[in-house]
Design a protein that fits this description.
By secondary structure, this protein is mostly helical. It contains 13 helices and no strands. The radius of gyration is 31 Å and the shape is elongated. Residues 38-61, 257-283 are annotated as: Disordered.
């Protein structure tokens, strides 16, 4: 009896996925028709449209603007090309062997996958469960049985909640918070430090919208010879902070390279300068 019930549930899951695929196919077909129709309409308009007379009140050369508009590059079959690209994209699998960052990356990739498809929240949950494999799939089967979860009747957010409880425990976020608080540039370049800063920032959502805090935290983590110079200019945006930090880093590198060049010349003077001078004999 239990086997039959599980078989029916699996069949229902496959039916849901098939329906989602059909919906996606229809959605892409409509999108392709709309884009191709717009291209045809635009081409017809360009062929039939007469150049308007210049309007002195507008203060612009309308004929010139029409000419520039008509010279824009067109790409025939763009809609079909995009549709085929989307069809070739496969959702990622998650096997449960990588905790923390691996699990977070899988969720992020699934979100990007869903962003180009017209899935309902329930269908997203079905897809998410279907993409689990090995240890992760076994965990989900056990979790469903334990909590009597009907995965055809939960949303993607609910599924992510269950997923995070197992593969992204609070300890992981606490560690990332500590790592963010202790982050400093050290031997990293400014660009590398910025990339690390941004990556860890997503684990401390309370600071993501507080730009003043992010600016102070970033400057304090810079090496003093860079951070001190950046702080003098009191930048008000993160973009401004990063730009000034990179410029100061480049300036310091140029100074260091110049000093090294001078040092080498001083340590290794040319052979001509070391050659003994010939003594002239007075006659």
């Amino acid at each position: 009896m239990l086997h039959l019930k599980e078989k029916r549930r699996t069949t229902q899951k496959l039916d849901e996925i098939l329906a989602a695929l059909l919906d996606t196919r229809d959605h892409l077909a409509v999108l392709e028709q709309q884009v191709m129709g717009n291209e045809e309409d635009e081409e017809a308009d360009n062929n039939n449209q007469q150049p308007p007379e210049d309007n002195p009140d507008m203060g612009v050369d309308v004929n010139a603007e029409m000419h520039l508009s008509n010279q824009k590059t067109k790409r025939p079959g763009l809609a079909a090309e995009l549709t085929n690209d989307i069809k070739r994209i496969s959702p990622p699998k998650y096997d449960g062997t990588t905790l923390g960052d691996g699990a977070e990356n899988w969720l992020s990739k699934m979100e990007k996958y869903f962003a180009i498809r017209n899935f309902s929240e329930e269908t997203k949950a079905i897809w998410g469960a279907y993409q689990l494999s090995h240890e992760a799939s076994s965990w989900w089967d056990s979790r469903k049985a334990e909590l009597n979860i009907d995965e055809t009747n939960i949303t993607w957010d609910q599924f992510k909640g269950y997923f995070r409880q197992r593969w992204l425990p609070q300890l992981f976020y606490d560690q990332k918070m500590t790592e963010f608080q202790n982050l400093a540039q050290g031997k990293l370049t400014v660009t590398e430090y910025w990339e690390r800063f941004t990556k860890l920032l997503k684990y401390v959502p309370q600071y993501q919208t507080d730009e003043k805090f992010r600016i102070r935290k970033f400057i304090m983590g810079l090496n003093p010879v860079i951070g001190g110079e950046v702080d003098v200019h009191s930048p008000t945006t993160m973009e401004g902070v990063v730009e000034k930090a990179i410029r100061q880093e480049q300036k310091l590198k140029a100074i260091s390279a110049h000093k090294e060049e001078v040092r080498k010349k001083t340590a290794n003077p040319s052979s001509t300068s070391l050659a003994p001078k010939k003594r002239t004999v007075e006659k």
